[in-house]
Structures are given as C-alpha cells and as structure tokens.
Amino acid sequence: MNSSLEMRLLNDYQHDFPLVAAPFAHLAEALGSTEGEVLKTLGRLQQQGTVSRVGAVVRPRSIGASTLAALAVPEDRLDEVADMVSNYPEVNHNYQREHSFNLWFVAAAADEVALQRVLNEIESRAGCALLVLPLEEDYHIDLGFDMTGTRRKRSDFMMAHASGNHPDRSQPACKPSPRELAVVSAIGAGLPLVSRPFAATGEKLGLTEDEVIADLQHLTGQGIIKRMGVVVRHHELGYRANAMVVWDIADEAVRDLGQCLGKLEFVTLCYRRPRRLPAWRYNLFCMIHGHDREEVLARVEEMRQGCGLQAVAHEVLFSTRRFKQCGARYARAA
Q1: Contact 281, 313 (CB under 8 A)
Q2: Domain of 97: which CATH number?
Q3: Domain that residue 40 falls in
Q4: Any residues with CB less than 8 A from the CB of 82 and at least 6 apart, and which?
Q5: Are 271 and 318 in a shared domain?
Q6: Residue 165: is its pLDDT beyond 50?
Q7: CA–CA separation, 288 and 266 (whole Å)
Q8: Could you tell me if residue 64 is left (phi over 0), alpha (psi between -120 and 50 degrees) or otherwise beta?
Q9: What is the pLDDT, as a whole number, of residue 91?
Q10: Dist. CA 182–CA 5, nearest whole Å
Q11: How many domains is the chain partitioned into structurally?
C-alpha cells in the first residue's frame, strides 16, 4: 500500500459504511484526514482497479433473481463468446476457468422470467451447452476480505445455527419495495464519489436524500444488503490466484460440511448449488484466493484434512482470465 490511509480505507471500511448524509466526511473524521483526501484516495484506487466500487454487496437471490452459469466454449471461440456474454448488463461477473465448462458468469435480473430470457438468449447465441446453477443455500457470504490476517471471520450462518435459528437461505427475508429495488439498482456500479452521494443518487431517481438512506438502512437491517462499503479486487491486491473448488457431497451431509468449510478464514464464499447430471456432479462450491497457485492448492489440502473430505470427489477450477467484474444490476436503465 502507498499509505496508511489507503490501507485503512481498503481494509477497515469494507463493512459498516456510514449511511449518513456526508459519509466520506464521517470516514475522514475517523481516519484523521479530510473529506477531500478520502474522496481523492478512493477515486485513485478505483481508477487503478484496486477498488471495484464503494457500495452494496447484496445477498444472492434476495433481490430479483440471479444465478451462476457456465458454458463449454470451444477454445477458438472463447474470446468472441466471452465478449458477447460480458455485453449483457445483467451479467456482473464473467471468468474463464480451467475446466471443460470454461466460461463462468453470474447473471441477475428483476425476476425469474427476465433472467431466464437472458440465459436462453446467451445459450442460443453461444451455441454451447449451458449449466444453470442457482444458489440453494449459503454457508458463508462474502463479508469482506481481511488483508491483515488479524480479523476473525464472522459467519452469519454459524451464528444462526448456534442460536437454533435455521433460516431458508434460498428466500429473501422480505420482498423489497419497487423504490428499494430502484435504489439498489442505481448504486449497482457504486456510489458516486461526491460529498453527498445519497443526495446525488436520489436526484437521479426523483427521491430525497433521506429516502435513499432510509431504504438502504432497511435493506441492510433485513440482511438483503450483506454489507455496505469498499469492495476490493483481490488480483490487484496481490492475490493473483483464485479458484472455485467444487465438491460432490452426499445430500444429507452438505449443510454440515458447508458449515465446516465456511469457518475457514481463507474461504470467501461457500454455497450449495444443484447438480446437473450427467454433465455436472458437484453440489458444494467454495471460493478461495492466494498469492499464487501453490498457496491455493495448499489451502485445498487444508480444506480436505480439516473437514474430513479426503475421500470426497472434488475439482479445483482456477481462474485464468477475468472478463468482467462489477456490481449486479437488477433492473435495466429506463
């Protein structure tokens, strides 16, 4: 990092972004800096690609409809198909991975009908087999990325199970209002880096600053927004190897093993998704990051040993290219 201000913005403010009229002034006061310097630093980090955006991370399938999907694309057409997929505003992540299903993307839309229409169109245009793998249950949502190695992971799934509360992770806690959906969609690419970002967002939507803040507070309180804050890009921070590790788990054991894997500090995401036999046998998905390939593979071995998965079939799908990474959009611009 170039400065202690950069490090603190990147590490300390991935969570609990202040939902107040002048949030960057609030951060500046806590950091012993100025609002202008905080905005300038965040703008520079975003321009460099270290920061994807300052905004919301939404629980999958809690707003609109979303899914992970994959295509098996002939190598000589991969760039062409990847470019086509990335051009859809509904697609927010698009990666090449080491597998016969080599193009993996996440798509989100206002509802299941709109999502299915996009997926059908992508499959038709690509002319390739498409896997559609919606989330069925989550065991650890991305709650931020600790760059210091000192922050203990807190999993809301683990806390819920400790209290005896077993929520249905495939359904939202409540249905967002049309206005709330509009607010989340408006900040999908991130908050504007200005002194009064919620006022600027409200102006575009015909809402007051207080209405925008109230909607974001409500969605955060409901757990639909998992966190508000700085969203970093791992690769630009030096974590240049990442892999999606997939496991073929007996259905009755998925929850316990998902909980076990979700506790590991280096696991950033852990979900249950459906099998698609005969093409796809795996039903438990984890994301892990490392500085290099060897570190990731060592962590996979730690997962196997730590959770008793030595005899379980699995694959490690390393990312090789990132074609697109941005915040999800749940509605097309008017």
Answers
A1: yes
A2: 3.30.70.3460
A3: 1-48
A4: 73, 94, 96, 103, 321, 323
A5: yes
A6: no
A7: 6
A8: left
A9: 96
A10: 33
A11: 2
Residues 145 and 37 in one domain: no
Helix (H) or strand (E) holding 219: helix 209-221
**Tokens coding 54:** 């300052």
Q: Which two tokens stand for residue 266?
A: 């280096």
- The DSSP H or E segment spanning 103 is strand 103-109
Q: Note the pLDDT of residue 144.
A: 59
Together in a domain, 12 and 117: no
177 inside domain: no
Element (H, E) at 5: helix 4-12
Q: Tokens 């408006």 appear where? A: 186
**β partners of residue 241:** 290
Q: Which of these ranges, 73-87, 202-216, 225-239, has the smallest mean pLDDT?
A: 225-239
Determine the 3-state secondary structure of 73 from DSSP.
coil
34 and 78 co-located in one domain: no
Q: Give the three-class secondary structure for 118.
A: helix
Residue 88 lies in a domain: yes
Instruction: Answer yes or no: do 8 and 143 share one domain.
Output: no
What is d(CA 59, CA 138) in angstroms, rounded to the nearest whole number?
A: 9
Using one digit for the tens of pLDDT, what is the confidence trace for 134-160? Answer: 999 999 876 556 665 554 444 444 434
Strands (E), 90-129: 91-97, 103-109
Same domain for 140 and 1? no
- Judge contact between 89 and 200, C-beta under 8 A: no
Of the listed ranges 52-56, 71-75, 99-103, the one predicted with least confidence: 52-56
- One domain for residues 24 and 75: no
CB 93 within 8 A of CB 328: no
How many residues are present in the chain?
334
Q: Assign residue 211 a region (left: φ > 0; alpha: ψ between -120 and 50; beta: otherwise).
A: alpha
Task: Specify which of 156-170, 173-187, 278-292 reaches the highest per-range mean pLDDT.
Answer: 278-292
Q: Are residues 239 and 318 in the same domain?
A: yes
Average of pLDDT values for 19-31?
97
- Residue 26, in any domain of the structure: yes
Per-residue pLDDT at 35: 98
